[in-house]
Amino acid sequence: MPKLNFKTIALFIWPMLFLLVLFGVGCTAAYHREQAEERAASVVADKSRQVPGMRSEVKIDQEPAEDLLEALPSAPSEAYLESASKEDTEARLLDLNNALLIAAVNSREYQERKEQVFLQALSLSSERNRFSPQWFWKLSGGVDYDSEDDWSAEGRSEPEFAWLLRTGAQVSASLSTNAFQFLTGDPATAARSVFDLTVTQPLLRQGRLSTLEPLTQAEQDMLYELRDFVRFQRRFTVAVLADYYRLLERRQRVENQYMNHENLIRIRRRAEALGEAGRLPELQVDRARQDELSASDSLEQAEQDYYRALDEFKLTLGIEPEFSILPDPAELADLRDRKMPAPPIGRQESIQAALQNRLDLVTAQDRVKDSERKARVAKENLRPGLDLIIGGSADTPDDDAFEFGDGTQSGRARLDADLPLERTEEGNIYRRRLVEYEQARRRFTEMRDQTVLEVTNRWRDLERAESGREIQRRSVELAEERVESTELLFDAGRATTRDVLDANEDLLRTQNQLARALVDLRIAALELERDLDILVIDEDGQLQEGRGFQEYIESKARNENN
Question: Among 178, 186, 185, 188, which residue's Cα sits nearest to residue 154?
Fold first, then answer.
């Protein structure tokens, strides 16, 4: 066995092992994950400043809102339906603010939209990184043994550098160092380094515009994603509010059906007593019994509709079906007592506000610019190719890996031309981009017209809901008076059972319509702010009511003063 030169072996192997251990320990998956999250967060913070209503932070991987659910108060006895023995007596009372807060943390749809923002930020980070200096380093080393009983050690180091400039120029450099030593036999040593530098600059095609196009589009796509997310937040918040109020409306219908059923039981008993006394025909007594049975069936149907809507609302919030919640009936009572203020701006000014603030409209306009830019890139790609390539290299003698001055140096410069003899695909792409530009223009004008129509319809809904609420309030008052007077006439023998039953049916109908009218007005007001894209939502998912109109009016005043 030959005597090995372990000092020489260490010279070749230990530096490589040290670097492998260093990177293997330091650059773990957790490290790269953390770095990626920091890059994405930086992108979101940077681009959020350009999107009104967008917060500078988007949290993903949030834990479910179990603490929020457990912190909900137990529902008081008056919150339960008087008719419902099926409801869990250990239910938690869920008010509107907590519903929005839980939805912002628990909703699966909400979490997925936040993840889409995060993924788009990662894509932009990768695209930006293309224009940063790129470093690569390959290391190799080892010991060889052959049949002649000769041992040798070899080490290779190949650091490389690449940089894509915004002008389209590509800079690449490499330094290859190879060291070789025989450990037995003839202890000869060989060491040599080669340095090479190349710069390639396109002169006609693939210039600055074409080179930057992927990055430019990625920057725009990030803006579009953030705008879409802001609009999603607003739509989602209004949808949760609407579902909550519709749930309360269904609950109120159950209460109304229950009270109607109780009244019909009382009327049936009275009719039976009058029938036994010979003061009421049996036909009218049977009619009272029939209406009581019908009311019992309607009550059960109303309960089923309410519980079904409650389960669907849990699904929207991301709450487990087994967790029992009750919507706070005080929220509907608040709608009855609250005087809904009219919007501080009129219909025509609302249209102008929407045309100014709608983020999807701004995106559609930007996509027209994207299409125009892509057409210019396609036109540029029809040119002939002409690249200027300059570079140089230097190497060292075979016995010294660091003395470049004793080696040879060389330089080079050349022009590479690509004549446009075959441009069928490029020509098709150019024509396609022109068509896409026209399509983008039409989509923008269509969206603008659609925006005007949506705002106009929202105003119609709001005006109709306002008048409907007042009509139904008056209708309930009249129906209550009619029931009271009809029952007095019935007791006096001056009204039939049919009159009493019709009066109670009309009261039930107007009570249900009033509950719907209250909810319709609330939702119509929210949808108007949503469609103007001025709805303000804080970081906890809470609606800042009225603040959107206030900020718009203040912004308009500043613009007029300037």
Answer: 178
> What digits encode the pLDDT tens for the residues 494-547?
888 889 999 999 999 999 999 999 999 999 999 999 999 999 988 777 888 888
| Antiparallel, parallel or unpaired: β 170-182 and 189-202 | antiparallel
| Sign, CA torsion 332/336/341/343 | positive
To 10 degrees, the CA torsion angle through 267, 269, 272, 273?
A: -110
Rg (CA), the chain: 38
Contacts 24+ apart (CB under 8 A), 524-527: 524/458, 524/461, 524/462, 524/464, 524/465, 525/340, 525/343, 525/462, 525/465, 526/238, 526/241, 526/242, 527/238, 527/458, 527/461
Distance separating alpha carbons of residues 450 and 440, to the nearest angstrom: 15
Number of residues that this document lists for the chain: 562
| Both tokens assigned to 46 | 């940077």
Q: Are 84 and 261 in contact (CB under 8 A)?
A: no
Please write down the long-range contacts of 7-15, taking CB distance under 8 Å and 24 or more positions apart.
8/153, 8/181, 8/183, 9/143, 9/153, 9/183, 11/153, 11/155, 11/179, 12/141, 12/142, 12/153, 12/154, 12/155, 12/179, 12/181, 13/141, 13/142, 13/143, 13/153, 13/155, 15/139, 15/141, 15/155
Residue 3 Cα distances to 147, 181, 189, angstroms: 16, 14, 17
pLDDT tens-digit series, residues 232-269: 999 999 999 999 999 999 999 999 999 999 999 999 99
Asked whether the beta carbons of 408 and 204 are under 8 A apart, the reply is no
Backbone angles phi, psi at 54, to 5 degrees: -95, 130
Residue with tokens 């007592």: 337
With vertex at residue 35, the alpha carbon angle to CA 32 and CA 38, rounded to the nearest 5 degrees, is 150
* CA 103 – CA 239 distance, rounded (Å): 11
CATH top-level class for 50-131+206-383+420-561?
mainly alpha
